[in-house]
Amino acid sequence: MITHLKFATVPSRDQDAALKFWTEQVGFRVVTDQPMGNQRWIELAIHTSQTGLVLFTQPGHEDRVGGRFNGSLACDDVEATWRQLSARGVEFLSPPEKQPWGTFAIFKDPEGNEFVLSSR
Question: What is the pTM of this model?
Fold first, then answer.
């Protein structure tokens, strides 16, 4: 049986800048960083989650760099996380917004990819 989502990919043109952003600014941890073709396979751990992020662009999918990530990153307190990440230089499109289903904010990585940060 399927137990969980192992990883999701974040397309990037500049893997070094993406790695610096996700580790130094967002706080994820490198699980592996190894050559894979003309790129590197960079897998990141998200705090205690079983699901990770991979900084890799499938050949032929370069047009996906700079788009909206098809998913949402969860946290316990969007407003506190927004303050923390903003202080580290993470660019948010707007402050957190409360909705009937929860609170969310959208941030961008250096490649222009957009990510929804939301409460559970």
Answer: 0.92
